[in-house]
Amino acid sequence: MKKKTERIYRTIGVFTTAAIVFSGCGTGQSRKEQDGKNLKIGISVYDQYDTFVSELVSNFQDYAKTREKDWGISITMDVENANKSQMIQNDQMDDFIKDGMDVVCINLVDRTDASTIIEKAQASDVPVIFFNRELVQEDLERWDKLYYVGADAFESGELQGDILVEKCKKDFNRIDKNGDGVLQYIMLEGEAGHNDSMVRTMSVINEITGSGYLVEKLSDEIANWNRDQAANKMKQFLERFGNRIEVVLANNDDMALGAVDALEAAGYDPDSQDWPMVLGIDGTTVGLNAVNDGKMLGTVLNDAAGQADGMLELARSITAGTKLPEEYELQDGKYIRMPYRIVTQENLGEIQMLLMKK
Ligand code: BGC
């Protein structure tokens, strides 16, 4: 029996499912009996309230509608929320298998605990595409029908660093509020043990110092990718360090926006010299708006649309044996990694045009 919360997408319609065909679901029809005219995909996300992940799944659903026409098939999708519980997600895997899904897309709750899902998949011969929360390589190598779609976390940290470095080259005195030649910064980290979080935190600093700038970490805190948690942490940082904060480096846009919320609540004005440089990663709709408004210096586009499309193309390719489009290179027969891109006020228009076309 599925718990109410797990079915939340369909009940409250966080993601539109209107044009997605659900008719094949739960009828007991096995994958072996299908005629290639219906592709059944089960998706489980670690937390439906995660802004980036929900944008990705929403893109996936939009692409599925288009591809139904392009490919002349119906695509049945069942999107489930694991509600931050690996146990719930493991149970959802059982349901996907029972419901005869052709392929399952998993946004792992615990990236170090993929074993149960892998064993269930292998025992029932159901391929799995993991996405966004990268599992350890040894796990992905345990079976040839396991894949990962995401991006290269190092690149995102480096590009975030590059945004700040470019600004420093043009306007160091504006950033260095106390004029000591050192960048005093705050780090807002995503999640303990999350690959993107660990790697971004390290690579952004390496990029800045490697470019010749001196930094001083005032403090860092984990805010679990979450805007409210980040706002709380930033409130405390402001109480402790006040105007000494020159740079806020956040592992994602939601946390950068939490910092913006706290700055505004404390009476800081984005147009004044006191406003620190705030940098995020993702390029979510709200993140891009904050870049446009000058509240964030920049962000790094984590290509949700490309990852969603790549995942759908891969699902089709695995199940129907079709060739992957050229833009999706399957590295080592297992990985699709979409490139990141810098976004600042200078190229915002271009990026927004690009996203509209996708
Ligand atoms: C994104 C975050 C998101 C996290 C969830 C990261 O790649 O940048 O915004 O919260 O994935 O796993």
UniProtKB/TrEMBL annotation:
<keyword id="KW-0574">Periplasm</keyword>
<feature type="domain" description="Periplasmic binding protein">
    <location>
        <begin position="41"/>
        <end position="322"/>
    </location>
</feature>
<keyword id="KW-0762">Sugar transport</keyword>
<keyword id="KW-0106">Calcium</keyword>
<keyword id="KW-0479">Metal-binding</keyword>
<dbReference type="InterPro" id="IPR044085">
    <property type="entry name" value="MglB-like_PBP1"/>
</dbReference>
<dbReference type="InterPro" id="IPR025997">
    <property type="entry name" value="SBP_2_dom"/>
</dbReference>
<keyword id="KW-0732">Signal</keyword>
<dbReference type="InterPro" id="IPR028082">
    <property type="entry name" value="Peripla_BP_I"/>
</dbReference>
<comment type="subunit">
    <text>The ABC transporter complex is composed of one ATP-binding protein (MglA), two transmembrane proteins (MglC) and a solute-binding protein (MglB).</text>
</comment>
<dbReference type="InterPro" id="IPR050555">
    <property type="entry name" value="Bact_Solute-Bind_Prot2"/>
</dbReference>
<protein>
    <recommendedName>
        <fullName>D-galactose/methyl-galactoside binding periplasmic protein MglB</fullName>
    </recommendedName>
</protein>
<dbReference type="Pfam" id="PF13407">
    <property type="entry name" value="Peripla_BP_4"/>
</dbReference>
<keyword id="KW-0813">Transport</keyword>
